[in-house]
Amino acid sequence: MSTTLAIALAGMAVIALCGMLGRRRPSGDLADWTVGGRNFGAATVWFLQAGEIFTAFTFLGLVGLVFTGGVAALYVVPYLAVGYILLFFVGPRIWRLGKERGYLTQGDFLADRYGSRALGAVSAVFALLFLFPYLQLQITGLGLVLELVTGDAASGAVSMAAGTALVVVFVLWAGVRGVVATAYLKDAVTLLVIGALAVAVPVHYAGGVGRVFERLAAERPELLTLQVDGAGPVWFFSSALVSVLGFGLMGLPFLWNSVLSAGSARALRRNYAFLPLFTVVVAFPMVIGFTAVLVLSEDTEPNGSLLTLVREMLPEPLVGVVAVAALIASMVPAASMAIGVSTLVARNVVPARSLRAQFWTNHATVVAACLAALLLALLRPDLLANLILLTYAGLVQITPAIALALWRRRPVHPWVVLAGMTAGVAVTLALSAVYGAAIADVNAGLYGLAANLAVVGAGALVQRASGRT
Amino acid sequence: MRSRHLAAAVPAAALMATPFLPFLRTGGLWLGLPPMLVWVVLWCLLVTPALLFIARGDEREEGGA
Questions:
Q1: Most CB atoms within 10 A, among A195, A219, A438, A462?
Q2: Transmembrane residues, as ranges (chain B) (predicted)?
Q3: B42 domain-assigned
């Protein structure tokens, strides 16, 4: 076994141990397991929420996006910052309603606000359809990291299997408290590693950050001016808009756990005010991506750019440390997503009546979902590739229903929002199947959202004309 | 909705307008960095004071009510 693989496996074990130590007491209560009794302090929620933005995508995918599209990858910064502005207003409102009405999931909120269990169930199925590939992406990330740093495909498979098993164990054992315990470690390790690499990589390969951009301005100016085919201004704006709405209006089901677990609305608002400062950290992997443009050949696997640079620059033990940082950036979000998936199934999809039955349905779903994601990642890693691109485009279709229900209870008939949501999902899937994730550089989710809003608008007018609610 | 809530709209508009602002796409550098990078980081940093300003006003109003 290589030093890198040994360090990486040991790192994964430490992460899981840390997660297991997060458990406070044996819990047979799904509410405690999912939202920690709704009494997390401001600092705890801050780490939980800050950790949500640092995933395998931020660590590996963003460097890859810069490698292929240049500054277009910067769309991530506006989407997060503007998303936090929306969450500053939306989050506390959802927290108050959740505390008053006992919500644990997005589906609970929709079912209660519209008085329709069917709406809660269908929205949960749509959410699962688009969230599951995101869970698989994190597990695929576990394998990709080890495969790239060791150059051995078998190490990748070992990493995926071990990482998934450890995530299942600590999630079942400690629930959201386990995610919180690992989030402290994750934020510290990823910040330290990505910050150090953002300085070391440009210095090692090009003589410094300033030199990287001087050379790019002279040799590849199109990467600094949004002139790459398929990654121009319209792509930037539409990608940012879909992501802002999906993120800021709570379209991502796993965001609900951190919001509902907060101890007060004030703590949430303060956190959302300060989180944009943390967003600036996203610029670090971008500097590494620009260095990769100058150093690596064009046929390099974009998502592997960061680890390829690191492997050629650092000694084996330090490569192992970087691998651990990338692994933790996959494991912790995977744990959050597993909780998001399982609670939606237990609370909104499977009609489990007793709280005990919900609890065991939930735990069985954690195992089944993680196992299914692992099998797909091992056997058919490309099967869900298109759906991964559509995570935000699909989840944004749930946001009109959420936004309307924030305003007042049952603002329109539940069948109206259900019809809009279904139309939005159908249009997004159909267009992306034929044309890909963007049509004329516009994200497919925006076409779906237009159809969604048109159906909801027409339905509301018919409802008003007929005088029915 | 209070007029102070508009303070959040300024950085939001500046950030979302980023890809369409011609002065960010000249090919030159600002402080040795791509202008677009400097622009989004700057406005991102300004979001926090804008939201704190709103939060302070809202809390003062709630406290006085």
A1: A438
A2: 36-55
A3: yes
Contact in structure between A213 and A66 (CB atoms under 8 Å): no
Taking only the tens place, the pLDDT of each residue in B5-53 is 899 999 999 999 999 999 999 889 999 999 999 999 999 999 999 999 9
Helices A265-279 and A76-101: crossing angle in degrees, nearest 10, is 170
Domain-embedded: residue B9: no
> Could you tell me if A93 and A247 are in contact, meaning their C-beta atoms sit under 8 angstroms apart?
no
User: Which residues constitute the domain of residue B47?
Assistant: 30-60
**Alpha carbon separation from A89 to A256, A266, A278, A386 (Å, rounded):** 15, 11, 19, 32
Whether residue A214 lies within 8 A of chain B, CB to CB, comes out as yes
Is the CATH number 1.10.1040.10 carried by domain A3-385?
no
Query: B15 vs A266: CB contact, 8 Å cut-off?
Result: no
What is the number of domains present in chain B?
Answer: 1
Q: How far apart are the first and last CA of chain B?
A: 16
* Residues in chain A closer than 8 A to B51 (CB atoms): 84-85, 88, 269, 272-273, 276
pLDDT band at B65 (very low <50, low <70, confident <90, very high): low
A232 contacts on B by Cβ (under 8 Å): 19
pLDDT in tens, A232-251: 999 999 999 999 999 999 99
**Is B10 inside any structural domain?**
no
> Where exactly are the structural domains of chain A?
3-385
Low-confidence ranges of chain A (pLDDT < 70): 1, 25-28, 381-389, 468-469
* The pair of three-digit structure tokens given for residue A465, joined into one six-digit string: 């004309």
The rounded percent of chain A whose pLDDT value lies above 70 is: 97
Say if B19 is an interface residue toward chain A (CB within 8 Å).
yes
Residue in chain B lying closest to A280 (CA) = B41
Q: Phi/psi of residue A24, each to 5°? A: -95, -45
Contact flag B29-A214 (C-beta cutoff 8 Å): yes
Among A74, A214, A221, the residue with its CB nearest the CB of B40 is A74
Instruction: Kindly state whether residue B11 falls inside one of the protein's structural domains.
Output: no
**Which residues in chain B are contacts of A226 at CB distance < 8 A?**
19, 25, 36
